[in-house]
Specification:
By secondary structure, the protein is α/β, with parallel strands linked by helices. Helices cover 32% and strands 15% of the residues. The strands form 2 sheets. Strands 13-12-11-7-10-9-8-14 form an 8-stranded mixed β-sheet. Strands 3-2-1-4-5-6 form a 6-stranded parallel β-sheet, sandwiched between helices. Helix 3 links the parallel strand 1 and strand 2.
Length: 473
């Protein structure tokens, strides 16, 4: 394998200089609309999605189908070492051929704990960046980093992904990719101009059930696909008011800012894969509706001391948001978000077509001609034939969320080591995240449809591979 020498990985003809990219970045921000501008769509025709943003001209070349540079060792830098980053570091260390070369968090104790994990794994002690909120900028300037992994509060995902690409690094970002349409467009343009991948690390796409349904859908077991559903219904009230679980109140504070679906990716990503969104179909519009915001205030009343700073907060985020996404082929995707009321955990994860339907939580299936009694059947009966090769190869993966976290990390590292095209790219991340600002705009406009931009700029019409990948030779 041809390794890329430290400090030289960003000097190819495909990679413009950091300075040249910075000169043109300022003009990109105006190409999309932020949350303030989105509020002006209420006057749109009742059944017609308004043009919330024009498609800006492409400034580089598409990143669809672009492989990673081949390398035997992947050098990873981890930014954000809280609940997510602090646990994901173990999975990067568990993959052969991966080195964690740098860690970053403004809380020094967290960087020390992470560095100790790296040393215990038999690797050299990583460089530590703990000098304030912006020390990640210095980390991104290193010449020995191939991938920057971002696991920080949502507010800074965009800035960190941007900085990583401007410094010639591929970047993987936890959900959501960014919080505004103009930020999503800027990440798309930066990925194309810097020739660096910017990926939404959507771990639920690698769930065992999700990957089995994906392969069944592609094999035609559901017939022509018609509808799907996904959600993030997860009671987070206790965690959002916990003084120790999150580093500060950042996640709860988003409930004082937006009314829409704050976390669409876990539900949207898998269903988008089933339907080959950006690979033959496209999400074109979203209509969203939200309930009153009562859950967090009621929980605070019953459980939080009157002296707590949270009593200064006013919550506007809908307790439950329900969105309907229409695709270019006429399919419908239902998305739900609810973290403020009592509810057993569910991502819904449903898919239906002309031959039958799958529904998760619990997993059950009914498809013709296999079933003919109008009774749900055992989904596990399809495991032997349709489980993805990643799950057959890693039957008992380490890590949380049932092993999907490890499968995601392993596959990304494999793609980077072998020089393969990533399973998903910046266009997928932007599409899966677009419901954050657009659902807010639709709710403000009393459910009026909002157009989802074509971040691929027409590339969606071309069939190409995705998570339903072929096992490398």
């Amino acid at each position: 394998m041809n390794d890329t020498a430290p400090g030289n990985q960003d000097r190819s003809q495909d990679s413009p200089s950091r300075r040249s990219v910075l000169r043109t970045t300022a003009g990109v921000a105006g190409a999309g609309l932020g949350l303030g501008a989105l509020g002006g769509t209420a006057a749109a025709a009742e059944n017609e999605a308004p043009e919330t943003t024009a498609t800006p001209p492409r400034q580089g070349h598409t990143m669809a189908g672009v492989p990673f540079e081949r390398r035997s060792t992947v050098r990873v830098a981890i930014v954000g070492l809280g609940n997510r980053g602090g646990s994901m570091i173990d999975l990067f260390l568990a993959v052969p051929g991966v080195r964690v070369v740098a860690v970053c968090d403004p809380v020094k104790a967290k960087t020390e704990q992470a560095a100790a994990k790296v040393v215990r794994a038999g690797q050299p002690s990583p460089a530590v960046y703990a000098n304030g909120e912006n020390d990640y900028e210095n980390l991104c300037e290193r010449g020995d980093v191939d991938l920057v992994y971002v696991a920080t509060p949502w507010d800074v995902h965009f800035a960190m992904a941007k900085t990583a690409m401007l410094n010639g690094k591929h970047v993987g970002v936890e959900c959501p990719l960014a919080m505004r349409l103009d930020e999503l467009w800027e990440l798309v343009d930066l990925s194309e101009r810097t020739r660096r991948h910017c990926m939404q690390l959507e771990n639920c796409c690698y769930g065992k059930n999700e990957m089995r349904v994906l392969r069944m859908a592609h094999a035609g077991k559901f017939g022509e696909l018609l509808h799907g559903a996904g959600a993030y219904n997860h009671d987070l009230r206790g965690l959002m008011f916990s003084p120790t679980y999150y580093e500060g109140p950042w996640r709860r504070l988003w409930h004082t800012r937006l009314r829409g679906d704050l976390y669409p990716n876990h539900g949207f990503g898998p269903v988008a894969n089933y339907m080959d969104i950006n690979r033959g179909d496209r999400a074109v519009s979203i209509s969203s509706f939200g309930t009153p915001a009562l859950g967090l205030a009621e929980y605070r009343e019953a459980n939080v001391e009157p002296s707590d700073p949270s009593w200064k907060e006013t919550y506007i985020e809908s307790d439950r948001t329900i969105s309907m996404v229409q695709t270019a082929k006429g399919r419908v995707i239902r998305l739900e978000h609810d973290v403020s009321t009592p509810h057993p955990y569910s991502r819904i994860n449903s898919l239906g077509g002309t031959k039958g339907v799958f529904e998760d939580y619990p997993a059950r299936i009914y498809i013709e001609p296999d079933h003919d009694d109008d009774q749900w059947a055992d989904f596990s009966a399809y495991a032997a034939e349709f489980d993805h090769w990643l799950w057959k190869e890693h039957a008992n993966p380490p890590g949380g969320h049932g092993g999907m976290d490890y499968i995601m990390v392993y596959r990304l590292m494999q793609c980077m080591q072998l020089g393969l095209v990533p399973d998903f790219d910046v266009y997928d991340g932007a599409t899966w995240t677009a419901p954050v600002p657009l659902s807010h705009a639709s709710i403000k406009a009393k459910g009026a449809p909002q157009r989802i931009p074509d971040f691929t700029r027409g590339e969606w019409t071309k069939a190409r591979s995705g998570v339903d990948s072929v096992k490398p030779a």
